[in-house]
């Protein structure tokens, strides 16, 4: 059964300011700030989000969306790790190793590094309470706002930072292709609350992407926030299970392929009131292959 949804996604406002000034998000740790740096009326950013009404189409039963062409793909994949909370360090490390093995096999990679494993939970805490890193660890709420994890310029920095000196000598030359790819899966029997929405990259115009700075006390990086367009084609997988893994492209050095995937969570208006709060795990990996 196909379950297309009329839903609200959060997009970057089409603001004149952004034509002359890059939006920024300043995030001092430990101040109880949400993802976009606001707490108790304190504004530390120039990001303004607006609601966009879209039809999010259900891709269950379809197999015509691929990482190469659309920027995302859903595959059947069981994890060997049964500690589905993934809170112990060793569980996260093992899931990273499993993810590296997956990409090596799937893409015939010469080198893979899964450099980030992230757990998200909806309704896990009061978003206005101060951050307690000892209690929360690395757990985050569902990501707010439609975005692409990093820009083309940030990808070059990330690749350089995550390659060893030997790796730079071996791989930073012609003949190699560099990709930064994400995996995402639920950690509950099936998702109804705050599912993941992904956009077919072929429906995104360059002007839809706005380069945005995110600034922390010790580092900064750039990502793309996304403006709404009626041309965009949004999709999700209804009642996605832990054995159904979403793959997303965040960067591809090869022109002509899908080079990013705009995505974000959304409130499902069709979810029952007693739906299990969303729990999910995602990874971010650097993959190097021969062209």
UniProtKB/TrEMBL annotation:
Signal peptide: none annotated. The lineage of its organism: Eukaryota, Fungi, Dikarya, Ascomycota, Pezizomycotina. This is Methyltransferase. Belongs to the asaB hydroxylase/desaturase family. GO terms for molecular function: oxidoreductase activity. InterPro entries: AsaB-like (IPR044053).
């Amino acid at each position: 059964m196909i379950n297309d949804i009329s839903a609200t996604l959060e997009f970057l406002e089409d603001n004149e300011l952004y034509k002359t000034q890059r939006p920024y998000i300043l995030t001092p740790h430990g101040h109880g700030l949400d993802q976009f740096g606001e707490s108790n009326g304190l504004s530390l950013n120039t990001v303004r989000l607006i609601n966009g009404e879209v039809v999010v189409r259900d891709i269950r039963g379809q197999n015509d969306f691929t990482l190469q062409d659309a920027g995302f793909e859903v595959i059947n994949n069981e994890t060997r790790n049964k500690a589905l909370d993934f809170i112990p360090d060793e569980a996260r490390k093992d899931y990273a190793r499993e993810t590296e093995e997956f990409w090596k096999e799937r893409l015939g990679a010469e080198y893979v590094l899964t450099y980030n494993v992230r757990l998200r939970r909806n309704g896990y805490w009061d978003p206005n309470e101060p951050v307690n890193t000892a209690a929360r660890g690395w757990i985050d709420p569902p990501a707010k706002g439609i975005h692409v994890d990093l820009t083309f310029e940030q990808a070059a920095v990330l690749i350089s930072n995550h390659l060893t000196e030997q790796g730079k000598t071996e791989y930073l030359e012609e003949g190699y292709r560099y990709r930064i790819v994400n995996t995402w899966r639920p950690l509950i029997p099936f998702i109804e609350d705050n599912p993941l929405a992904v956009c077919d990259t072929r429906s995104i115009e360059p002007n839809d992407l706005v380069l945005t700075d995110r600034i922390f006390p010790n580092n900064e990086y750039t990502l793309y926030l996304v403006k709404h367009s009626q041309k965009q084609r949004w999709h999700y997988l209804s009642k996605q299970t832990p054995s159904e893994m979403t793959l997303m492209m965040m960067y591809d050095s090869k022109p002509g392929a899908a080079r990013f995937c705009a995505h974000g969570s959304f409130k499902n208006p069709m979810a029952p009131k007693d739906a299990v709060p969303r729990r999910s795990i995602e990874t971010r990996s650097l993959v190097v292959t021969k062209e």
